[in-house]
Specification:
- The protein has 2 domains: about 130 residues, Winged helix-like DNA-binding domain superfamily/Winged helix DNA-binding domain (Arc Repressor Mutant, subunit A), CATH 1.10.10.10; about 120 residues, Trna Endonuclease, Chain: A, domain 1 (3-Layer(aba) Sandwich).
- A hairpin with a 7-residue loop joins strand 5 and strand 6.
- The strands form 3 sheets. A 5-stranded mixed sheet has the order 4-5-6-8-10, with helices on both faces. Strands 1-3-2 form a 3-stranded antiparallel sheet. It has a two-stranded parallel sheet with strand order 7-9.
- Helices cover about 45% and strands about 15% of the residues.
- The protein has 13 helices and 10 strands.
Length: about 300
């Protein structure tokens, strides 16, 4: 949130009303784009996306439009068509600076929402005066991000506590889930001893002509895999006449290790602990979906 180039939704309120101030009937999309023009949003800010893929700028503009509609400052006169009302004009005159913070926005719009609606204090666990902080979609995404961060940390702790063979198999399961291994999804874990520096092999085709060699190491979560370990892995790849490899660990990689992996002729992909956990969550390895949330919106065609 703090690094976003898009202003908070209260700042969209006055520009949205300004778009309608001329008295013409304006579409919802024209309100959003016009507000962004008035605010001087850059192309980079307008292109910023939420995790769901929705544009953050449009999402926040939509939330502002929802508030001013409930407050009666604008009215919907036809499908997707809005115009300003006298209360909206009055607010524009008395508030030349618009809304610049969440606290004032909450006091302004809180009375127009039912007290038991889920976006208020019951949903976010804070006093009502600070309840309407972000729009519901961003609240959901922030909540999911917190849950996934907790699960990712737990995943790494669990993986670190397992036997080497378990970790190596988990890594191979992940690569197969990601689509490597071809249609048949063939992956082989090498012997625990005398593996020649290779923990697993993923065949990309039925004949094994294209292979990915894997090194999987359970290091302490705060440890750093250095350049010597990556050099040893590259040496093992050369010894097996391998053309590509993946080094996966529960720890992190030192700057030297990352630089070496980028410069060495043999393609080597480094996957550290945080990325490993993220991929496991994304591809459903070691985790299960507890609940699915469906987001709905009004079907305008139904009411037309």
């Amino acid at each position: 949130m703090s690094s976003s180039l898009v202003p908070i939704w209260p700042r969209f309120v006055r520009p949205a009303l300004q778009v309608l101030a001329g008295g013409d009937t304006v579409t919802r999309r024209e309100i959003k784009l016009g507000a962004m023009d008035i605010m001087g949003l850059s192309a980079e800010a307008r292109a910023e996306k939420l995790e769901s893929g929705w544009l953050r700028s449009e999402n926040r503009a939509d939330w502002a439009i929802t508030h001013i509609t409930r407050a009666g400052w604008i009215e919907r006169v036809a499908r997707g068509q809005y115009r300003i009302t006298d209360p909206g004009r009055g607010w524009l005159v008395t508030h030349p600076d618009g809304l610049t913070d969440f606290g004032t926005a909450n006091k302004t719009f809180g009375e127009f929402w039912a007290k038991d609606e889920p976006h208020l204090d019951a949903a976010v666990g804070v006093p009502e005066v600070a309840a309407i902080v972000v729009d519901p979609v961003e609240q959901i995404e922030q909540g999911i991000a917190r849950i996934q961060a907790d699960v990712a940390a737990d995943l790494l702790t669990r993986l670190r506590a397992q036997a080497p063979a378990f970790f190596e198999q988990a890594v191979l399961d992940l690569l197969i889930a990601m689509g490597y291994g071809g249609v048949e999804g063939k992956a082989t874990r090498t012997q625990l001893t005398n593996d020649g520096g290779i923990d697993g092999i993923v065949d990309q085709d039925a004949l094994g002509l294209s292979r990915i060699y894997v090194q999987a190491k359970r290091y302490a979560l705060d440890a750093a895999v250095g350049r010597p370990e990556i050099q040893g892995f590259v040496g093992a790849l050369h010894g097996n006449k391998a053309g590509q490899g993946v080094f996966i660990t529960t720890a992190r990689f030192s700057a030297g290790a990352q630089t070496y992996a980028k410069e060495v002729p043999t393609p080597v992909v480094l996957i550290d602990g945080p990325r490993l956990a993220s991929l496991m969550i994304r591809y459903g390895v070691g985790v299960q979906v507890r609940r699915t949330v469906a987001l709905v919106e009004i079907d305008e065609d139904f009411f037309e």
